[in-house]
Amino acid sequence: MLDSTPKEIIERKSGGVINPAKTCQPLGAMYAALGIHKCLPHSHGSQGCCSYHRSHLTRHFKEPVMASTSSFTEGASVFGGGANLKTSIKNVFSIYNPDVMAIHTTCLSETIGDDLPSTINSAEVPEDKVVIYASTPSYQGSHITGFSNMTKGMVDCLAKATTETKKEQANIIPGFVNPGDMREIKRIVNLMNVNFTMFPDTSGVLDTPMTGQYVMYPKGGTKVEDIADAGNSKLTLALGQYASEDAAKLLERKCDVNYTALKTPIGIKATDQLVMALRQNFTEEIPYELEEERGQLVDIMTDTHHQFHGKKVAIFGDPDVVIGLTEFLLSLGMKPVHILTGTPTSTLGGIGGFFEKEINHLLEPAGIEAQVKAGGDLFELHQWIKNEPVDLIIGNTYGKYIAKAEDIPLVRVGFPILDRSVQTYLPVVGYKGAMRLIEMITNTLLDREDRDSKDEDFELVM
Amino acid sequence: MHGPIGCASYTWDIRGSLSSGSELYRNSFSTDLKERDIIFGGEKKLAKAIDELVEKYNAKLVFVYSTCVVGVIGDDLEAVCKTAAQKHGIEVLPVQSSGFIGNKSMGYRAACDTLLRLIDPGEKKIIKENKFINYLGDFNLAGEAWIIKKYLQRIGIDVNVAFTGDSSYQKLKTAPEASLNIIQCAGSMYYLAGKMQELYNIPYMQISFLGLEDTANSLRKIAAFFEDEEIMNQAEKLIKEEVFSTKPKIDFYREKLKGKRAAVYVGGGFKAISLIKQFREIGIEVVMIGTQTGRKEEYEIINNLVEDGTVVLDDANPSELEQFMIEKGAHLLVGGVKERPLAYKLGLAFIDHNHERKHPLSGFVGAVNFAQEVYSAVCSPVWDYVHGKEGS
Known about the structure:
Number of strands of chain B: 12
CATH class of the largest domain in chain A: Alpha Beta
Number of domains of chain A: 3
Mean pLDDT of chain B: 93
Oligomer: heterodimer
CATH superfamily of the largest domain in chain A: Nitrogenase molybdenum iron protein domain
Distance between the termini of chain A: 33 Å
Low-confidence stretches of chain B: none
Order of helices and strands of chain B: HEHHEHHEHEHEHEHEHHEHEHEHEHEHH
Largest interface: A-B, 67 and 60 residues
Structural class of chain A: alpha/beta
Strand content of chain A: 5-15%
CATH architecture of the largest domain in chain B: 3-Layer(aba) Sandwich
Largest sheet of chain B: 5 strands, parallel
Helix content of chain A: 40-55%
Shape of chain A: globular
CATH topology of the largest domain in chain B: Rossmann fold
Largest sheet of chain A: 5 strands, parallel
CATH class of the largest domain in chain B: Alpha Beta
Structural class of chain B: alpha/beta
Radius of gyration of chain A: 22 Å
């Protein structure tokens, strides 16, 4: 039995974490960097960091993940990692020949105070190549903060306003979602007939088809010139405030591109908002194809709503995804009673209480009181569930310990999913993604009902 | 884990080690150091975290792992651990495993140093038990240590404690009483074995329970050490019985796999050596072999063992692996988590020989599992689609 969590909640004094619901910044930075075409992420720190981030991403995406490291030794830790970084830059371009090298820091290089910009400035970078960087101290925020910081780094190092008037095009920052989600968002924007650049974009990088050949830099990823041109767009849509808004803000400051922050488009409402934002800003009509999809979704929602009503759910994961899921589950009539993210609130430019406020804002109209926490851990979530049991848990793979201990079904959504396949190819965003979520949730709930029902209650038609 | 959150996140329950007792080790504990802690020091937070954990879980022993940033800001783990140990009347030991001290081997060494402190009997007199051995470098992945323990029991030898598969605080404490140390994973435990010989006069020998040949030879080697006729006879009897029941199964797969070619990229040299022999048992030739931490002597053995033309690599990078796998026409790769998708992209089968797996590959039963796994990987119909024999 894997359960070693006591039911009784004793005040936690240490500030330590038991069973984390987050990981550290560099992982998010590495994931974001992989969304640039022909980019090799580089970890400026000890070897272990890079190796763990690659393994972790590989376990989730089931794809090769390449990255280089400054490979700090004791010497570099004492005398600074500048020399290691310069050698790394030289070697990476001469051996692995990427178009872009995206350097992120680690807790070690941050703490010893390595000055990335000046080291990079004095390094040998081949003429047609670019080095971008982001500061990603592991002891601040979470992997979502790291994703945000690297996306900011793309704006900071690459985006330029070069045209007099802004172009009729949108920038889309998708946030920390799967390549399948990025594809779906792109499909929707294409259907709306809007020119756009999505960055970062890991589709075509971490969901590549089998060709019998290994290519170090696959076809996907946002091209450097497109990120540069993002400075000329008339609008940025930042999907998911946590992972995307900071980069959009910086782009506004730097290149005067207006931005709108929207929820990660999970569920009908958030998808509507994305579609409406595109319609309003680009005066495009909504095509029948999208209307049809939306209509189908509403049809499915009405067909299945009786299965959802009043069912208690615990949701955990990354803040943007959890916010989207909460809104969607509420629209289905479910009762999210425990809502938790590991990412703390106070680190993103001091937007304190954001997650909790946002969630409570969603819960209030539904008249639901829930345990809501940012910066929590799964030990705490488990204790909540022991004290108020739920019908369903929605979250990443780490939820399986709680699910097994309490015999509660688990629907896997988010990052990381280490024990199931295919999910990175298929969306949870957009109308199609909402249909998929409904399918996943009802299948899980009904499988459970079938398993548990007495013979006389066992139903053929459900 | 004393450090920022990532260090604990990435190492949470990624080993397939099994326990016959508590499952507590499958949880992850971290001080989750924040900016404030880095500036003002993390010692107080660590002390509180230890208090909280001891209160919650009533532990007899706590290991505190140092990470990169903790090493740099200079938290005095030794002092915090000492105070906590006195306060709670238990053992609290630091592991000086800051990332920048070196590669994985250095981490093993740091852990071994801590284990040496743990097993130090101090003034207590060591009573040597006869035919009582420690099994070093088996982490009981998928219950492998249990398989080997049973074999040894059958021939009249008791395993005192494994380092550290399914071991316990009390059992580890008795380690100095053993009369022999056997080492499976040399990369992690060679250093500890040497130290134990020096301190407690326990001889050691390297063995390997991978494949029929090496398993049999290892059992013979251990039996011979005790110079006891009865044990040696029992060992021969066990080998005969086990080979008799497993050989036909292996032969079945051998027929199917004959002529296939394997590429191997694993951590330690000793494992690599065993794998060459094990592949030979199932009719497969190793055409590329590499290790991360193999020693010079091990490479010499590898060179003598492989056929002419086999590529031998040390500390290879992915593009080298790719190049040689293609060049040598390998059908499968044995490797770790990061190599799996690389092999698949090239249309090669993959065998997980890492620490995450939950099926045993040790001993006679493991040899059959291995053959079965290779068969189902290499002979899957999906490869026909990859190589264009089916469909378009």
